[in-house]
């Protein structure tokens, strides 16, 4: 069975984590210890930012970033094609989301999509940008320039984009903070976990406080000064993060090998997909194939399943402006035509760092049998 998730740990790595877990438990130092600090140091080094702050989830990382960028009472532009968490974090920070449409070539907004929302809502204060599937839009440098010229902060949701890089810069190091997820299905995992990356010293200090019930003390003690939360990572997860980070580029490379081989077949057969060839490196969290129509998606999924291939969730089958929980926040619904048209017409192949040559052949055969014919 080819599944969309793969826990990429060797026998030796699992033995090492088991041994370290014993040590951590025996020490009684379960949070905010040496592995948390080490994971933050190594992650910031990898992304290229001055600072990294580890947390329990990406959702809390996003909420902290919106709070630190003073979003309360403001409008924040966000693509409708994202996970619930991006939009929920905006709302929980006291802001209102205004939904942007997307560029169907990359499933993220283009510069024109951003300009369009800013034209319609001149009071937009900041932007939440999600590198869907790990894809950094080719216009991203112009998008950042536009944000700077218009005094808009830009927070990157990098939940899909560990190691994604465009013209020498890694996702999470482009603008006013990055938020990463280490949920089990992600490109690297700590079971549950998240990380903020930033070059802003004040934000770094405050994020350390916000994740720890608002305590600003250097030893994590002191008075509750900020309205933070209990959003710490634990030491076992942090250690697992160190093990995963060491092999992140290798894991991405394994995903890329599968993407390259399958892309070749898709190009030869005129099947449309989201290309990442403009990037230095793409996390390849989701490989998005665009189908001509949505009517037979369920039967395609079933046919793949019968051939032993479980297709993962799309990104995203239902855009956020259509999700019931956000119905009170939908403004300018008519601007979201690409999200409505293309989101229901995509499938994501179950490519992981554990994908084998035999898996690749099986997936290509299934595309040939169930999509081409
Ligand atoms: C784009 C995006 N942002 C944020 C999140 C939230 O991540 P977490 O589960 O670590 O809070 C997810 C999780 O799936 C996601 O896909």
Question: Which descriptors apply to this entry?
Answer:
Aspartate Aminotransferase, domain 2; 2 domains; binds pyridoxal-5'-phosphate; 13% strand; Aspartate Aminotransferase, domain 1; 39% helix; 373 residues; alpha/beta; 3-stranded antiparallel β-sheet; 7-stranded mixed β-sheet
How many strands? Answer: 12
Supply the number of structural domains. 2
If you compute it from the alpha carbons, what radius of gyration comes out, rounded to the nearest whole angstrom?
21 Å
Estimated structural class? alpha/beta
H and E order: HHEHEHEHEHEEEEEHHHEEHHEH
CATH superfamily of the largest domain: Type I PLP-dependent aspartate aminotransferase-like (Major domain)
Described by strand count, sense and barrel closure, the largest sheet is: 7 strands, mixed
What's the CATH architecture of the largest domain? 3-Layer(aba) Sandwich
Using the coordinates above, name the CATH class of the largest domain: Alpha Beta
Low-confidence stretches: none
- Helix share of residues? 25-40%
Q: Tally the helices.
A: 12
End-to-end Cα distance, whole Å, is 23 Å
Strand order of the largest sheet: 1-9-8-5-4-2-3
């Amino acid at each position: 069975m080819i599944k969309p998730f793969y826990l990429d740990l060797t026998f030796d790595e699992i033995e090492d984590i088991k041994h370290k877990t014993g040590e951590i438990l025996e020490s009684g130092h379960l949070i905010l210890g040496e592995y948390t600090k080490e994971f933050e140091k190594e992650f910031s080094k990898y992304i290229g930012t001055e600072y990294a702050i580890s947390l329990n989830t990406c959702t809390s990382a996003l909420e902290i970033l919106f709070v630190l960028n003073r979003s309360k009472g403001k409008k924040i532009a966000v693509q409708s094609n994202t996970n619930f968490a991006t939009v929920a974090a905006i709302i929980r920070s006291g802001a209102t989301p205004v939904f942007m449409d997307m560029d169907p070539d990359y499933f993220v907004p283009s510069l024109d999509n951003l300009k369009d929302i800013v034209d319609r809502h001149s009071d937009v204060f900041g932007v939440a940008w999600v590198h869907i599937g790990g894809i950094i839009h080719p216009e991203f440098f112009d998008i950042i320039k536009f944000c700077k010229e218009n005094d808009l902060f830009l927070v990157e949701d990098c939940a899909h984009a560990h190691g994604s890089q465009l013209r020498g810069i890694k996702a999470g190091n482009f603008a006013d903070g990055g938020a990463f997820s280490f949920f089990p299905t992600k490109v690297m995992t700590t079971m549950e976990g998240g990380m903020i990356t930033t070059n802003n010293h004040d934000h770094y200090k405050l994020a350390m406080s916000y994740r720890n019930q608002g305590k600003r003390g250097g030893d994590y003690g002191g008075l509750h000064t900020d309205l933070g939360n209990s959003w710490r990572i634990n030491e076992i997860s942090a250690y697992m993060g160190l093990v995963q980070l060491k092999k992140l580029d290798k894991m991405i490379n394994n995903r890329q090998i599968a993407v390259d081989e399958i892309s070749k077949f898709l190009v030869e057969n005129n099947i449309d997909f989201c290309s990442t060839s403009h990037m230095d490196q793409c996390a390849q969290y989701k490989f998005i194939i665009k189908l001509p129509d949505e009517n037979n998606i369920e039967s395609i999924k079933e046919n793949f399943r019968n051939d032993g291939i479980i297709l993962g969730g799309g990104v995203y089958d239902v855009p956020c402006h259509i999700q019931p929980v956000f119905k009170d926040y939908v403004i300018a619904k008519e601007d979201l035509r690409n999200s409505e048209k293309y989101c229901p017409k995509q499938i994501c192949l179950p490519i992981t760092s554990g994908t084998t040559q035999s898996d690749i052949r099986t997936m290509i055969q299934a595309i040939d049998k169930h999509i081409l014919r």
